[in-house]
Design a protein that fits this description.
- By secondary structure, this protein is mainly alpha-helical.
- It folds into two domains: 88 residues, Helix Hairpins; 130 residues, Up-down Bundle (Four Helix Bundle (Hemerythrin (Met), subunit A)), CATH 1.20.120.
- It has eight helices and no strands.
- The chain is rod-shaped, with a radius of gyration of 39 Å.
- The two termini are 50 Å apart.
């Protein structure tokens, strides 16, 4: 039974209407929609629906059976809506849990190790340059600086692998982009610093420092972007 077949609605009545109210409403509506009324809203099909509704509601026994059917239909519809709402909630919760788990994995398997490895590359630079500035031509000092650059390459390789190990969740797209460009700047900075060890040209040294500075700024942008997610 659908809402369209509700006889109470057809006769513009409530479920608690008395027999007198049913008869009164039926007669009023029949006069209103009867083709002989010459009214603009005259409707033969509506008269058929009115007659069908009155045949049921005007008979106490048939009305009782009809009310039971309405109640059962209402209960069934309510149970269906409840089940749909519960299913929607479960699907939404499951999707939310998956997104949270994906974000948690990315933070711990990608962001944390990448951020730590970038620190291992960038943070020692000033101290390394300070030590090297004592005498750039000193073989031991230069070898120590070259060893630092070799460590940087290994850290960078590990960071790049960690960054590619998991797809970026949509929620961290901005932070991931900043990390990606940060790693690129670090890679270019290492190469510029390495060129300095080959020809002692200070321009490579200054360029490498600037690229590391940009990388540090990009890392801070990634950190700030993640703060808005927490």
């Amino acid at each position: 039974m659908t809402a369209d077949s509700n006889h109470y609605e057809t006769l513009h009545l409530s479920r608690t209407a008395t027999p007198a109210e049913i008869k009164q409403s039926y007669r009023r509506l029949v006069k209103l929609f009867h083709p002989d009324s010459k009214s603009e809203i005259a409707d033969h099909e509506q008269i058929v629906r009115l007659n069908a509704a009155y045949e049921v509601l005007g008979d106490p026994q048939r009305r009782r059976i009809y009310d039971q059917q309405l109640h059962q239909t209402f209960q069934g519809n309510r149970q269906h809506r409840t089940a749909e709402a519960q299913n929607h909630y479960r699907r939404h919760r499951h999707t939310g849990q998956q997104a949270d788990e994906q974000l948690h994995r990315w933070l711990h398997q990608v962001y944390v190790p990448v951020n730590r490895l970038i620190s291992c590359i960038i943070n020692p630079l000033n101290k390394q340059l300070e030590e090297l500035s004592a005498d750039p031509c000193d073989d031991e000092l230069m070898e120590a600086f070259q060893a630092y650059l070799e460590d940087c390459r290994q850290y960078l390789n590990q960071a790049q692998k960690a960054f590619r190990s998991l797809p970026n969740p949509p929620a961290v797209a901005g932070a991931a982009a900043s990390l990606y460009y940060c790693l690129n700047q670090v890679a270019d900075g290492i190469e510029e610093l390495n060129w300095f060890t080959l020809n002692y040209d200070d321009r490579y040294l200054h360029t490498g420092q600037e690229l590391f500075r940009i990388a540090a700024s990009l890392r801070r942008e990634a950190q700030d972007a993640l703060k808005t997610i927490a």
